[in-house]
TrEMBL record:
The keyword Cell cycle applies. Keywords: ATP-binding, Cell cycle, Cell division, Cell membrane, Membrane, Nucleotide-binding. Its main location: membrane. Homodimer. Forms a membrane-associated complex with FtsX. It comes from the Bacteria. It is found in: Cell membrane. GO terms for cellular component: plasma membrane. Belongs to the ABC transporter superfamily. Pfam families: ABC_tran. NCBIfam families: FtsE. Residues 2-227 form the ABC transporter domain. This is Cell division ATP-binding protein FtsE. It comes from candidate division WOR-1 bacterium RIFOXYC2_FULL_46_14.
């Protein structure tokens, strides 16, 4: 499903973000990506949806060699990858419904399908009653639920979440993680980058740790820190 083979990423300013990364994530897995700020977690995520390209190595997502596709093929790659951001990236002048529906509109989906899938996604995340609200009327948790609905509205096989609880209180953070776990049980592969020790320790999922651009630990039923 996701595979990185001997991947390194060195930016033009000489910063070595990732060094010799080898990682395989199977279909329907739930994986936590942990490590200190600047370790390379976000860069790794960006490689998967071609926001960045590796300096060397091979990135494969759902059997697609990501670093070999042409620029015009990137939108089609991203239709198979839902992305949830820490800072939400919602369209401020659009309602909750319109933010989620927009992800389908850009694909040219028919109006009836857009409405059906958008309402299904909003129901899954518990945001139907807020469908007509604007982002500035939402709590942090509601914004993140909207972001998740937008990410899964076209039923992608892969969901990436980069620090999805970074701006949320502890209880809301658990609500978001339980929602991601629910999505995973619907046979979606989920990769979550996080600094939240309590959630990682409590959920007992596979944990991949990165430090200094290198994978230092890959542990099933793992904890945030090495035991």
């Amino acid at each position: 499903m996701i595979e990185l083979k001997d991947v390194s990423k060195v930016f033009q300013n000489g910063v070595e973000a990732l060094l010799n990364i080898n990682l395989h994530i199977g279909r329907e897995e739930f994986v936590f990506l942990v490590g200190p700020s600047g370790a390379g977690k976000t860069t790794l995520m960006k490689l998967l949806y071609r926001e960045e390209s590796p300096s060397i190595g091979e990135v494969i997502v759902d059997r697609i060699k990501v670093n070999e596709i042409k620029e015009e093929q990137i939108p089609f790659l991203r239709r198979n990858i839902g992305v949830v951001f820490q800072d939400y990236k919602l369209l401020l002048r659009r309602t909750v419904y319109e933010n989620v529906a927009f992800a389908l509109q850009v694909t040219g989906a028919p109006r009836s399908q857009i409405r059906r899938l958008t309402m299904q996604a909003l129901e899954l995340v518990g945001m139907v009653k807020r469908a007509k609200s604007f982002p500035n009327e939402l709590s942090g948790g509601e914004k993140q639920k909207t972001c998740i609905a937008r990410a899964i509205v076209n039923n992608p096989p892969i969901l990436l979440a980069d620090e999805p609880t970074g701006n949320l209180d502890p209880q809301t953070s658990w609500d978001i993680m339980e929602l991601l776990d629910k999505i995973n049980r619907r046979k979606t592969t989920v990769l979550v980058s996080t600094h939240n020790k309590n959630i990682v320790d409590g959920m007992k999922k596979r944990v991949v740790a990165i430090e200094g651009g290198r994978i230092t630990r890959d542990q099933q039923l793992g904890m945030y820190s090495q035991q």
